[in-house]
Amino acid sequence: MKLSSRERFLIGVLFTLIIWAVALEVFIWPCRAGYQKSRELMESRKQEAAGMEFYLSHYDELEQKLNEWENLRNKEDFFYRNIDDTFMDRNLQAMAARAGVSICRMSIGEAVLADFPYDTEMDDPEDSGKEAPGNGPAGGTVMESVITMEIECPDAKGVMTFSDEIYREQKSVLVSFLDVEAVYESGEGGQGTYQGMKGIMEVRYYYEEIG
Length: 211
Known about the structure:
Elements: H1 5-72, E1 80-81, H2 85-99, E2 102-108, E3 112-113, H3 125-128, E4 141-153, H4 156-168, E5 173-186, E6 192-209
Parallel strand pairs: 1-6
Antiparallel strand pairs: 2-4, 3-4, 4-6, 5-6
């Protein structure tokens, strides 16, 4: 049967569409998905590298602050006394505000007896026949509360300023864990837009229960 030119044209268009459909299914879409996955992986590696750079650039400063904190802990007025969750919440919120840091979420763990040696000379209670005092400098019981916060701030300076505010208290509170990294939002052409710093900070309060 002889086909008209119109029919031959339509059949040619149909075959072209079929070829493109097969190419999309077999080659183009899988490659595009692989490209997208590779781009996401590169973005993730970029954020990890930014996080490592942050820790390396501030490691010495953080270590120095912790050493200063260790030297302070045997002062008589070092420990907070009879504080509660409300005090810790407000105290951290105030310090974060001064540092330009937003606390998106805060979780305060149940207070537990602290394994926190206090260097002071005490008579052996077995020798004196008296009841053993608490493990705090004022004879009370030293408790530990762990606070986990999800924080956000414009840049790394905010994180360090927040840490400075905590250690500037010169009291029994310290930063025990920090996992903060730069956040990028994917844009057109694979270009990531910097959104600031975001992550987790863990703080520990030690306080003496008296009375």
